[in-house]
Amino acid sequence: MTPNSDIDLLVDIQKDKKTFNNFLSLNHFLEDLFGKKVELVTTQSLSPYIGPHILKTVQYVSVAS
């Protein structure tokens, strides 16, 4: 990781909260929080090729609403 690196986060959003606006709001909130560009990826959008490798190294964090 370099000082210019972005932060890649795998997110799983509750079905009743899964909207484009909520996704963008979360992205902006995290960028403001970390002071870096954040790339959000949903579990549903993982590539079938690289997804299994990503899931092996995931570190889970639970966030209460």
Q: Can you offer a commentary on this structure?
A:
The chain starts with 6 loop residues before the first strand and ends in an 8-residue tail after the last helix. With 65 residues, the protein is of the alpha+beta class. It has helices at residues 20-34, 51-57, and strands spanning 7-11, 38-42. A two-stranded parallel ribbon has the order 1-2. Strand 1, helix 1 and strand 2 (38-42) form a beta-alpha-beta unit. The radius of gyration is 13 Å and the shape is globular. It contains two helices and two strands, in the order βαβα.
Short description:
The chain has 65 residues and is of the alpha+beta class. Helices cover 34% and strands 15% of the residues. It has two helices and two strands.
Task: Draw up the topology in text.
Blueprint: E1 7-11, H1 20-34, E2 38-42, H2 51-57
Key words describing this protein structure:
alpha+beta, 2 helices, 34% helix, 15% strand
Radius of gyration: 13 Å
Helix content: 25-40%
The strand line-up of the biggest sheet is: 1-2
Any low-confidence stretches, pLDDT <50, length ≥5? Answer: none
Order of helices and strands: EHEH
Query: What is the tally of helical segments?
Result: 2
Shape: globular
Distance between the termini: 30 Å
User: Largest sheet, if any?
Assistant: 2 strands, parallel
Mean pLDDT: 90
Provide the structure class: alpha+beta
The share of residues in extended strands comes to 15-25%
**Count of strand segments:** 2
